[in-house]
Design brief:
Length: about 70
């Protein structure tokens, strides 16, 4: 559980510095319609992405960390 929390913390930290355009691309890779996130404020979009990330399995979370840090 601690490892998963550390991974989610790393994603959150990465999201803080991620430009909105790249965050939008991450939403698109999850298959979300642009209308679901386009009108959100930046901080709300980050929270939404983290909420979605909590539902991913551990292996996929590891991949998301790499995408956020890239």
């Amino acid at each position: 559980m601690d490892n998963r929390q550390n991974t989610l913390d790393a994603i959150w930290d990465g999201l803080q510095e991620l430009p909105r355009m790249e965050l939008n691309q991450l939403f698109a890779t999850l298959g979300l319609s642009k209308s679901m996130y386009a009108k959100l404020e930046d901080q709300d979009a980050r929270k939404m992405f983290l909420g979605l990330a909590t539902r991913l399995d551990d292996d996929t979370l590891g991949e998301v960390v790499q995408l956020v840090r890239a």
